[in-house]
Every structure is written in C-alpha cells, then in structure tokens.
UniProtKB/TrEMBL annotation:
It catalyses: 5-amino-1-(5-phospho-D-ribosyl)imidazole-4-carboxylate + L-aspartate + ATP = (2S)-2-[5-amino-1-(5-phospho-beta-D-ribosyl)imidazole-4-carboxamido]succinate + ADP + phosphate + 2 H(+). Pfam families: SAICAR_synt. Belongs to the SAICAR synthetase family. CDD domains: SAICAR_synt_PurC. GO terms for molecular function: ATP binding; phosphoribosylaminoimidazolesuccinocarboxamide synthase activity. InterPro entries: SAICAR_synt/ADE2_N, SAICAR_synt_PurC, SAICAR_synth, SAICAR_synthetase, SAICAR_synthetase_CS. PROSITE patterns: SAICAR_SYNTHETASE_1, SAICAR_SYNTHETASE_2. One of its GO terms (biological process) is cobalamin biosynthetic process. This is Phosphoribosylaminoimidazole-succinocarboxamide synthase. Pathway: Purine metabolism; IMP biosynthesis via de novo pathway; 5-amino-1-(5-phospho-D-ribosyl)imidazole-4-carboxamide from 5-amino-1-(5-phospho-D-ribosyl)imidazole-4-carboxylate: step 1/2.
Amino acid sequence: MEKKGLLYEGKAKKLYLTEDENLVISEFKDDLTAFNGEKKSSEEGKGALNNKISTELFKLLEQNGIPTHFVKMLDDNHMLHKKVDVILIEVIVRNIATGSLTRNLGIEDGTVLPFTLVEFDYKNDELGDPKLNDQHALILGLVDFQDELDKLRRMARQVNDILKPYFAEKGLNLVDFKLEFGKDKDGNIILVDEISPDNCRFWDMKSGEKMDKDRFRQGLGGLTVAYEQVLNRILGK
Ligand code: C5P
C-alpha cells in the first residue's frame, strides 16, 4: 500500500490517502509539541518508537475485544489504518492525579484517585481544548446522541481495564492517558489515533521516574531513552 495525497498534517503525524478509499496511512513524525503548540522540538527516532508502541497496544486491545482503526504497521514510521470520521472529543482517563487535574482542582500530585476518572476535552486547538460536559458535547453536535457519549466512556474504561494491569506487570503505573475515537464507514465507533508515551503518562513503579512526554514538557531530557524503555518492556526485553 502506497501513500497518495496528503490528507491532513497534525502536530505529531501526517495522514495520507491510499488507493483504497477506506484506508489511510499515518506517518509518525519526530516532532514534539506541548502547551498547545507553544513549546516545540524534535527528537530523532521518537516517531518510530510511537509507531511501534501503538502497534503493540492496538494489537493487544483488538485481542481483548476493543475495535480499533489499526490494520498493520508498514515500516518504522508508517501505520496503515481505517479511515474514519474523527469525533472531536479527547477522552481523558485518569488513575492518579497529576497534570491539569492537579492544576485545576488542587488535588495533590500523585494522589491515587478513589475511582478511575473519565473526562472529555473539546479537540479544538484555537480554543485550547477546553473541558466539556455531556450537554456541551451535544449542543456542539460532536456526537448525535447521549448513548454515544456513554459508549465513549464505557470503551475508555475498558481500555483502562486492559492497559492498567498490563503495564503494572511490566513495572509501570499507567497514570493517565488520552484516547480519540471515530466512526468507521458503517458508523461504528472505534478507537483511533495512537497510544504512546506522547499521550499516556507512565511512572516507573519502583523509582517513580517519568517515562513519557512529561520529560519534554518539564525539560527533564532523556525522552527517547524513556520511550525505548517503554517499548522494550512491552516487548518483554
Ligand atoms: O494535561 P493533562 O493532565 O490534562 O493530560 C492528561 C493526559 O492526556 C496525559 O496523559 C496527556 O499526555 C494526555 N493529553 C494528550 N493530548 C492533549 C491533552 C492531554 O495526549 N491534548
């Protein structure tokens, strides 16, 4: 399968059309952005690591009954996947308080939450991805029915129920993560985008070390070394 025209360029990926109208190719870029694009950089090898990590995690989720857009990894930086209508809601799942939850609500960093929190953000760079409640999402027409919002929450919790114990076995706390969903050609809601240390937070269970994009956000350095460690733990190396 070969790349045809560029469909869309995002902050971390480029999307290309293919000869099959139902399939697209994502190119994982080495670019890094944070704080809604205000902080920018690039780390050689980051895109390939995210492609490989996402590939393994999409396969794991598919095996456990979560429908995803994943078809196959084509090479180091390219993934073939289904074309969808993206739902403009970022579904955030949190097990431990940090980041914007700590900033917005004053919950102490590192607090284990009494239950898994699922939040919605509006995927809109111009507005800075504001928080959404169900009524906002319906008024904006981001989905057609309340049932679909319930489904997004249900699927996000299922993903957490699979990934949290999976990473715990590998010595990593899955602190929080962001998921995106879309509708395939038959209108089914499926998991899309990527699942990588760019959109998940992982803390080493023993040392507490951050093994994700917070290394860039907080200027800690060692980003690709950390991402590589996440991949190696997934691969059991
Ligand atoms: O910044 P915040 O604490 O809300 O992030 C929660 C989780 O969602 C983090 O794992 C972060 O990497 C992810 N996220 C993301 N893209 C965004 C916002 C958050 O991947 N636009």
